[in-house]
Amino acid sequence: MTELRIVKFFNRLGRGTAIDWVTDFVSRILYLAVFWMLFAIAIFFLAENGKIIALAMTIAAGLHFLISEGVFKRLLLKYFAKIRPYVEHPKEVFPIGRRHSDSSFPSSHMSANLAVFTVLAYFYPSMWLIITLLVLLIAFARLHNGMHYLSDVVAGIVFGIVYGIVGIYLSNAVVSALL
């Protein structure tokens, strides 16, 4: 019940204002996918150690799709399925943006973004403040939009960090093996 109160609180903040537009925009999967692909390509070609960083980002994102999307939301659905707040409480939580109908656990938006953010924070530690602000914005958006409970968001953050760490480790291992 506490989680519902948290979602309702965030869902009501700034409803009907530009906040709805911002949270809808930062939650659009197509924009996020295009942004991260272009970002990875730019890093690959322009950054020092760009190939390692892009490889780590690709591995981390791949782990997200394999585990969060494949294992949790497909194979283990009957054990981890969780109804989204706006579906479970339609009179109390107003959906903003695309109305996802799959399981809300874990938050795929958080998992995918944290996977990449973890890699970026490792290679660019001076970016931690910007990364933290982006994480908070996306977490806020998922709650504000009525798509996730706090536990979904936290699980997505934890999974994403693990995917990022594994991506860093594997990319460094590949590079070491090739040298």
Could you characterize the architecture of this molecule?
With 179 residues, the chain is mainly α. The protein has one domain (2-178): Vanadium-containing Chloroperoxidase, domain 1 (Up-down Bundle), CATH 1.20.144.10. It has 9 helices and no strands. Helix 7 (108-123) packs across helix 9. The chain starts with a helix and ends with a helix.
Quick one: CATH superfamily?
Phosphatidic acid phosphatase type 2/haloperoxidase
Largest beta-sheet details: none
Distance between the termini: 54 Å
Name given to the CATH architecture? Up-down Bundle
Shape: globular
Number of helical segments?
Answer: 9
CATH topology: Vanadium-containing Chloroperoxidase, domain 1
Total beta strand runs: 0
Q: Cα-atom Rg, whole angstroms?
A: 17 Å
Helical residues, percent? over 70%
Could you report the average pLDDT, rounded to the nearest whole number?
Answer: 89
Outline the low-pLDDT stretches: none
Strand content: under 5%
Nutshell version of this structure?
By secondary structure, the protein is mainly alpha-helical. The protein has helices at residues 2-12, 18-26, 29-46, 50-75, 77-80, 85-88, 108-123, 128-144, 150-178.
Keywords:
179 residues; mainly alpha; Vanadium-containing Chloroperoxidase, domain 1; globular
Set out the fold topology.
Layout: H1 2-12, H2 18-26, H3 29-46, H4 50-75, H5 77-80, H6 85-88, H7 108-123, H8 128-144, H9 150-178
Helix pairs in contact: 2-8, 3-4, 4-7, 4-9, 7-8, 7-9
